[in-house]
Design a protein that fits this description.
Layout: H1 2-11, H2 14-48, E1 59-62, E2 71-73, H3 75-106, E3 113-115, E4 122-124
Helix pairs in contact: 2-3
């Protein structure tokens, strides 16, 4: 029974659950980006290039025969996958950039000086006496 409890504790730790949620959201986001590339971006680009469908671009190495399928290099599918990757990478870059910007604003710098309670002069945070009025801090 202790091995089951150890597994439960491992699986329920915050970072494991967060990672699982990230993987699931990432997979769904990947499907959205693939649809964006295949269904929205590539048709107009293909139309501008003379009605070409990028998913049909292929180099046939061996023609189809009676018992076997054709051997092809599917360059168009590769182009679609590269566009998918670029869009996902750029989106993640922008998200992380914004998160870093928000995090950098939320943590104020540590104070380096303080006010003397007697003479209201700015003194070092490490000082135990005021250099101006010599009172104890």
């Amino acid at each position: 029974m202790s091995m089951l409890n150890e597994f439960k504790n491992f699986a329920m730790r915050g970072n494991v659950v967060d990672m699982a949620v990230g993987v699931i959201i990432g997979a769904a986001f990947g499907k959205i980006v693939s649809s964006l590339v295949n269904d929205i971006l590539m048709p107009p680009i293909g139309l501008l290039m003379g009605g070409m469908d990028f998913s049909d671009i292929a180099v046939t190495l061996k023609a189809a025969e009676a018992g076997s399928a054709a051997v092809k290099i599917n360059a168009g599918l590769f182009i679609n996958a590269v566009l998918d990757f670029i869009i996902v990478a750029f989106t993640i870059f922008m998200m992380i950039k914004q998160m870093n910007r928000l995090l950098s604003k939320s943590t104020p710098p540590a104070p380096v000086s303080q006010e003397c309670p007697r003479c209201i002069s700015a003194i070092s945070i490490k000082a135990t006496r005021c250099p101006h009025c010599t009172s104890e801090i």
